[in-house]
Amino acid sequence: MKIALAQINPTIGDFKHNTEKMMAYIERAKGLSCDLVVFSELVISGYPPRDLLEREDFVTANLETLRKLVDSVKGIGVICGFVDRNPRREGKPLHNSVVLFEEGKVLHQAHKRLLPAYDVFDETRYFEPGTEYTAFFYKGCTIGLSICEDICNDKDIFSRRLYSVDPLARMVENGADLIINIAASPFHAGKREFKRDMLGNISKKYKVTLVYVNQVGGNDGVLFDGISMAFDSRGIMTAQASDFEEEIIVFDTERESRDIRPISETDTDSILKALVIGTRDYVQKCGFSKVAVGLSGGVDSALTASIAVRAVGKENVTGVFMPSQYTSRESFEDTLKLAGNLGINLIQVPITGIFKKFLQELSPVFEGIATEVTGQNIQARIRGVILMAISNKLGCLLLSTGNKSELSVGYCTLYGDMSGGLAVISDVPKTMVYRLAHLVNKEKEIIPRRSIEKPPSAELKPGQFDQDDLPPYEILDPILKAYIEDNKGFREIVAMGFDRSTVKEVIRRVDRNEYKRRQAPPGLKVTTKSFGCGRRYPIAQRFLAVLQ
Amino acid sequence: MKIALAQINPTIGDFKHNTEKMMAYIERAKGLSCDLVVFSELVISGYPPRDLLEREDFVTANLETLRKLVDSVKGIGVICGFVDRNPRREGKPLHNSVVLFEEGKVLHQAHKRLLPAYDVFDETRYFEPGTEYTAFFYKGCTIGLSICEDICNDKDIFSRRLYSVDPLARMVENGADLIINIAASPFHAGKREFKRDMLGNISKKYKVTLVYVNQVGGNDGVLFDGISMAFDSRGIMTAQASDFEEEIIVFDTERESRDIRPISETDTDSILKALVIGTRDYVQKCGFSKVAVGLSGGVDSALTASIAVRAVGKENVTGVFMPSQYTSRESFEDTLKLAGNLGINLIQVPITGIFKKFLQELSPVFEGIATEVTGQNIQARIRGVILMAISNKLGCLLLSTGNKSELSVGYCTLYGDMSGGLAVISDVPKTMVYRLAHLVNKEKEIIPRRSIEKPPSAELKPGQFDQDDLPPYEILDPILKAYIEDNKGFREIVAMGFDRSTVKEVIRRVDRNEYKRRQAPPGLKVTTKSFGCGRRYPIAQRFLAVLQ
Lengths: 548, 548
Hints:
The structure is a homodimer. In chain A, helix 5 packs across helix 11 (430-440), helix 6 packs across helix 11 and helix 14 (473-485) packs across helix 16. The first copy, chain A, has helices spanning 15-31, 56-72, 167-173, 191-206, 267-285, 299-312, 329-342, 352-362, 373-394, 404-409, 430-440, 449-453, 466-469, 473-485, 490-495, 500-512, 514-518; strands at 2-7, 36-38, 77-85, 94-102, 105-111, 136-138, 141-147, 178-183, 209-214, 216-219, 222-225, 229-231, 237-240, 247-252, 259-260, 291-295, 317-321, 345-348, 397-400, 422-423. In chain A, strand 2, helix 2 and strand 3 (77-85) form a beta-alpha-beta unit. Chain A is α/β, with parallel strands linked by helices. The radius of gyration of chain A is 25 Å and the shape is elongated. The first copy, chain A, is built from 17 helices and 20 strands. At the A-B interface, helix 1, helix 2, helix 5, helix 8 and helix 9 of A face helix 1, helix 2, helix 5, helix 8 and helix 9 of B.
């Protein structure tokens, strides 16, 4: 059987757009003489639809769309994901389902059995799990149909198994020799290697052919890298699609073949690609074509602008430089150079006069705050007002430029530099910001070298440097990773070799600034734990008292 | 058996504070010659701890706290909720548990069987469900221990049952004659009547005595009203605690008794109480004592300030009036009057000069924007900057003043009037704002009558009124309720009798403004569906196309 693996980029709720795209890929699969074309999880609606699933009209529209698709496709079998209703009067009202149809008939259907409820996932909120593990005969193969998490409970791979049943093992017991898995598996750096090894090991262990089709693109902050794969029954990868690109690849169960497309080589490469695709998709799926970025002369805003140019094109990016009395000449020069290198439009709006006016009006209330934190925040917020005015007036989406290290410890101003529709690098630690900046400059200098090499500064008071307020980023970033990504506690982090008082201060700052992050724009997830819907912390809590 | 129902207000993660409070209530129960004292769900840690549950150190601290409590209490039995580890290597790592201990020994333990995953709940994210339904003999009763949702799956009450098992029925089959339910059941207006009827019906149907103990207080935006209750085996309520107050009430299984404390009479009464308690708890649990409120002369900010005064005391509330060239004399007079009536400090900071300066600096970029939406947003954001400066400098938490109707349709400015640490009335529809304002004025005029009676206006351009941009609130609010709380679609809402184009425009505005709400401060939940963690909508989605 010749199988097309079609990884496409659906838009949440845009049933017309999604099925038109599917139809185009079905035609391509037919042109490649395929017997079967496989699409990803919930491809009809896009993944994740979140609480749209609680709307009857949404579920109905998804079912009607599938019905039309079943009726209109001829000459090829199609496997795809959709939302089904649970016909029973007990349990959650929906199923996360997969269907195989051909010539107007549904030949087989299965419901997702293992429903993830960790990190960004909320599937137990909507779906009742499937409880069947049948395999069925189709065009010479005995197929076991599964959805994403269904194949992620192997006892030889997971030391802590989240579920008591292994659907894959059950389908193999029932005779499956071809496992098809449709997925919407969110990206984070380092995950693809784990996934490839897991899929290879499973297919080898059970001596089954395995086809895995993953969604591509960004939906809000959650990104999908595609890299659909096929493995023969010896566990050898015989087909692999590109990362972060819509694509169709072909795999023949009858013939030895090899179609391995290149993917990003390093984590840094894949993160850059993820950020570009994530930015493009967020901007365009929200109905915008243009973006604005505040430029400070520093590396964070320079990297954000470089990503923006790759995402939506230089003609659609406006840089905004907003100098104050504390802005250095170097920052101005580097901003001009960056804008020139990127070929983007640059607007300049000084904030000194506005800042003075604020200080004047506030002086009856309190005096001498220019360089205090209050005064620094006012400067950052004036910039926020200007950026939002430009965004309003020019109809462009504002990208915020803060990195994960800053956001973690609250070294940023709510309604100031945190303003924007999308926080492009808010899941990128500062040490990775530097690696990405070097990668952007790989072929020629885009980001001025001085922006990368100078000591980072917010330039909100004279002689201010990040390192006066924060530990060096090479120390801060691993502490943050241990605390935020790995959920380690104070004592464990100290045991890793870090200074007690540094760890205590970092933890306190992370906890104390939860309120800022709650009001941050959505950010693009590239690590195992990003702020946003995958990390759900209370604000009014006192657990930090346990540091003593 | 004489049972004390102890409803207390724990702080998330403050194990020391929570157990000190428990110890005080245990002593009170002993003073009342009780045999047993019952506390609410997860009372040791406070509910909901959310992703703190993913931290080993948090779970350990909670277990150590329970251990100390078990060791130290003498002379009375104690039932309370805590987080336990799941000893099995499969399934979620934790249990939501209830324990009965006495004289240093744990006599019985049960795990919550039904784990809610709807609205604000995320229990399947952390907990493995219990699968046992035993009843056990203790001091003359055969007790069935249950936790909150465990008793919410009766087939005669719920037409759509979310779970396939009814733990209550199973415990009764196993001989239970006393059902004890410990809960953390979030408040919304109208829920208490449903809950009281359900509990009464269950106890009558199974001829069991029923004791229900609910948490009190606010944790972030989720509020708990207490109203712990006891029912005899005829389904008659024999004890009821107050709403929104820490309290202990006593119920004797052996003696006819009646101890019914008064609770708020109307929905409006209970919402006002909820908002006051919610504000107080958020402010104080976040470590603040003082708050600031921007006052406009309108009813929303007047109501918010009135709530603030009840929550934290007039000496801790600062009002801020920020007039522009579009501010009316009436608004100024009404603000002075309100501040006088409330007895709060009033700061005045004009924005006209700052606004002019912004327009001047932005004029090279674009001209003549003073009264356009861009210019209106700049005014709102200048006020945001001033309010945050005052919050920074004076160390007070800023309360935002927007209502649910505005927030739903985006009739508000992100980083402007939406700024703050807590959005006090963001789940209160405008029509309810008026009812609450009248309630505040019940005994004497606090909110100036003109603030309530004048047509609402943002005063961001000459002659601007809400009703120029929005349908009348008596039309808008029911459409919003149908769409947001009841998940009705376009056609269903039109079928309720509303104008097609009005409904279409309202739905479009709700959808289009998801990005603003994502960056809103936490709000106090008082309806069945508030914005925030209980409503999880994608931003980049195109389902609105289905309105045609």
